[in-house]
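Question: Hello, beginner here. Any chance you could explain the protein record under this note? Any guidance would be welcome.
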Amino acid sequence: MNAIEKTSSDINGTAQDTRQDLHRTIDKVASQAQPLADKMATRAHDGVDLVGDRIDQVGDSVSKASERLMARGKQLGAACQRAGETGREYVRERPAVSLLIAAAAGYGLSKLLGSRK
C-alpha cells in the first residue's frame, strides 16, 4: 500500500501545483485584460462623444439653414406682395395700356405654345 499512497500523494501534489499555476495564469490574464477593457471602453465612449458632437453640428447647420430659408421666404413673399401692389396700381392708373400689354402677352404665348405641335 505504500506505493499506492505515494502515487496518490504525488497525484495530489501535482494537481495542487497545476491548480496554483492555473490560478496564477488566470490572475495574470485578468490583470492584463482589465486595462485593455478599460482602454476599449474609453475609446468607445470617445467615439460616441465624437459622433454626438458631429450630430449636434449637423443639427445646428440644418437649423441655421432653415432659419435663413425662412427669412428668404419672408423676403420673397414681401417682394411678391410689393410687385402685386405695383401691378394693381399700374392697372388702375393705366387700364387701356394694361389691357394692350395683356393682349400682346397672350398673343405671344399662344404663338410660342401653338408652334409645339
